[in-house]
Every structure is written in C-alpha cells, then in structure tokens.
User: What shape does this take?
Amino acid sequence: MNLETRKYQFIQELVKVEDVSILEKLELVLKANQNDWFDELSTSEQAEIQIGLEQADKGELTSHEDVMKRFSKWH
Assistant: This one.
C-alpha cells in the first residue's frame, strides 16, 4: 500500500472518530511530529552543527578514545 492510499484510509477512519479524547491525542502526535529540535536552535548553533557535519564528511574527526587520552589528566 502506498503512502497516498494510507493517508486516504487514515482520513476515512478519522472522520468516524467521535471521541474527543482520541482526537486530542491524535492532534498531539501530529504536532509533536512537526517540531524538529534543529529548527529550535539559533542560526549560529545550526551553523556550527553544519560545520561539524561537513568536517565529518571530509574525515576530519578525532576519535573519542583520542580525546579521552588527551584530556585524561583532568578526568
């Protein structure tokens, strides 16, 4: 079953719902699904994450083990 068919069937079932509490729960699920934590970050935070992702794509990484060795004297 493709996505469009599933959506249509869901809408058909939704029309039949008479319990307000079920509708409220469905609304909460839909609203929660629309919020992405990334969108709630500031533009500077988003830019820093993007820089980190680009560095990772280029292989510019330091392993956790190496970081822990370097900073072991403070840990």
